[in-house]
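Methods — Computational structure assignment.
A single polypeptide chain was analysed. Its primary sequence is given first, followed by the predicted tertiary structure written as structure tokens.
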Amino acid sequence: MSFFYQRARNLIFNDTKTIRFGPVSPKHNKASRKLATDIIKGSSVTLVLSEPSALENIKSIISVRYVVHGFATSCSFGDATLNCHINASCSQANDLADEKYAIARILVNNGQSCCSGSLINNTCNDLTPYFLTAFHCIDFDEDRILDSGEEDDIETWLFSFRYISPNCTPSSEPSSWVTYSGADFRASNNETDFLLVEMEDQSSSSTGLTYTGWSRYDNFPFQNEGTTGLHHPGGDVMKFSLTQKNLKKTKILSSFAVITIVSICKWVHYGKLNLIMVQLKGVLQVARYSIQIIE
């Protein structure tokens, strides 16, 4: 639990001071009074709270609810091992200069698991921080049902943007990245494996983040173009994967809609994957356009 009064600052760092989280200030106060930190590597963590001396009778509140401590790292740098995982800083990803700044690694389940997702635009273009990810990222017990405990966990999700290797090769961890703590549930469906949340903080122009967009098509716009995926496999720095052009589209009937499944027959260098898109009344929802934050 945390709550910071005016001009208070909280800084968190590891024993070697090679990792710093913060400063956390009153602008980071949440209605839930919950705040999650990023992964702090090391054997000890130091919290430093600074408050103005003029506020002697008004104190900030810090209460450590739990500490997740592992002897082996998970959801962190170096965990992606497949040869189709190419660093997003490589020249092959130059055409994704806007899109990659909408992608984030998410620490979920009290920081014990990780997922990927993206900021997504809306038709009002008002920069509401909607974030699209997968239903399985929150379905910790894998029963395909969202319960209250899983929904409450979203309040402590940690979103890490710009977690990108500065080099194409060898891969290395960046010296800094942008994090946001906490979100609210907005919508989900286990059949299409989608989850929409709204981050509790809106990103500013200084972060350089972007929002991915979407368009409504009644055809299959990229069937002959191939596809690129951006994500954080295993919680590692951002990777991208390329597909060959032989994509396949099939339809199945769910309880509420016709679901279009796009089968990526082969990623370049590796494997096979199915993407799921929802077709309602003959309209296929496809991510297409992105916008950059400008204030």
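Note: Residues 215-287 form one domain.
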